[in-house]
Amino acid sequence: MVAGINIRLSDSVSGNGIYSIGVAARKGKGSTLMSVTDNLNPKKVFYYFEEICKIPHGSGNIDRLSDYLVNFAKERDLFYIQDTCKNVIIIKEAAPGYEDAEPVILQGHMDMVAVKKPGALIDMEKEGLRLAIDGDDLLAEDTSLGGDDGIAVAYALAILDSNEIAHPRLEVIVTVDEEVGMDGARELDVSMLQGRRMLNLDSEEEGFILAGCAGGARVDWTLPVAREERSGKRFAVRLKGLQGGHSGAEIDKERGNANSLLGRLLYSLSQSMDFYLEELEGGLADNAIPREARAVIVIGEEKERLLMDGVKAVEEELRQELQTKDPDIRIEVEKLEETEKLEETEEKRISCVTGEDTMKVVSLLFAAPCGVQAMSADMKGLVETSLNLGIISLKENKAAMQFSVRSSLESAKGALIAKLKSIASIAGASQEVRGDYPGWAYRKNSPFRDMAVKVFCDLYGKEPEIQAIHAGLECGLFSAKIPGLECISIGPDMKNIHTTEERLSISSTERVWNYVVALLKAAKKGQ
């Protein structure tokens, strides 16, 4: 983020009541942020959260944060392991009086879904986040915040850094690349761990204790395409204004998926006019519902009116259908500059996908299933099976589409993946499955969960809700690796995770911190 001080004014962030943006100090190519969270409680939690936010840590870019955790452990003489994947385990022995208590595993992941607003002047590969406070919310200017799951890491570091918190032996696991397939948890060797009780801190709603989750997988389609030189007019068609969101936790809201809706638009246009794809792009992560998508098409000189009329008709349809779920949807059409003539007498020529292959891409995009596929018959309101078309692209001679598939039933997940393969094969596309991870089955009997419920009741004066969720958690992978493992997952209130509108509740962060501390205190032998 040059020597000097740059003060970011509050009106640079959308929303009312923002009273602190903080001060960004620029030094060379790196980025450091002076404290925005000094007056927030719990102080150590927000201190470490802000330290984490200074370090770029999008999925696949976690080396610096992993090394930060190692240095943290070294400075406090704590035992640590950093494996070849950059996962980190830190051990802190039991506090006095807790030597005989059963160890507790604290677990979260260090990577975030790093997305930014179009045109935002920040390099998320190299720069830290620009934090801001809006009332009770902590957010990041123009980008996602990474509360998922930076807050888990901050909680763990604050506990490890304290000599006042009562606790049994703590085994802190911080994994890498959870957001792109739980790769870190899949590769981590946990054979040295003693704990059989795990507190996962990767949930986004206070007042709930999660006790089960869906399994999932990433599915990639690749369709070879041929290109040819053509003349005509170039238009960029952009579908914008959607809310997006987490493809697991918010898939039930049935918000518009920009990639799928662009497929619908292009297919509708193809029924009344010929066009040729030049570019296609949409989405930033396969597990985030895409907010925007864009196609560049080439049409004949006489087809401009057909294009405009066709886009207007589809936009009106979508506005009507999504008036409650996604009311700000819009479609923009921009006439692009034409390529220069090589010679005065030659036509302008544009490299675009052939007509036949354009229809293959459009038809495949339109036919691709997306969204909720089935609801649970056992738990009211819980999505059982879904998929999200998160990323589309067209590069040179290859069209690509990437899905996140989820289900609480392994058989249903397998059937949906097989269905995708059959659809892809009809169009001549290949399919690859990666990052397949198991679900986390609900345990009928769990003393650790019972203890967590009791502590919650004592602290809040009411019972928590016990739930399973449709989003994937690493609890499933760890349950498969550690026999007899009891898991629960909790976390503070967050909104719009994986998007540039992400917010973390400050007051909820403090309440959940108090709950975690009370839970560790209660984890004595025999309790």
Structural notes for this entry:
The chain has 527 residues and is of the alpha+beta class. The strands form seven sheets. Strands 13, 15, 17, 19, 20, 22, 23, 24 and 25 form a nine-stranded antiparallel beta sheet that branches. Helix 9 crosses helix 11. It is elongated, with a radius of gyration of 25 Å.
Q: Specify the biggest β-sheet.
A: 9 strands, antiparallel
Radius of gyration (CA) equals: 25 Å
Termini distance? 49 Å
Give the fraction of residues assigned to helices: 25-40%
Low-confidence stretches: 1-16, 18-33, 339-345
What form results from the Cα inertia axes? elongated
How would you describe the oligomerization state of the chains in this entry?
single chain
Discrete helix count: 11
Q: What's the count of strands?
A: 29
**Strand content range:** 25-35%
SS content category: alpha+beta
Mean pLDDT: 91
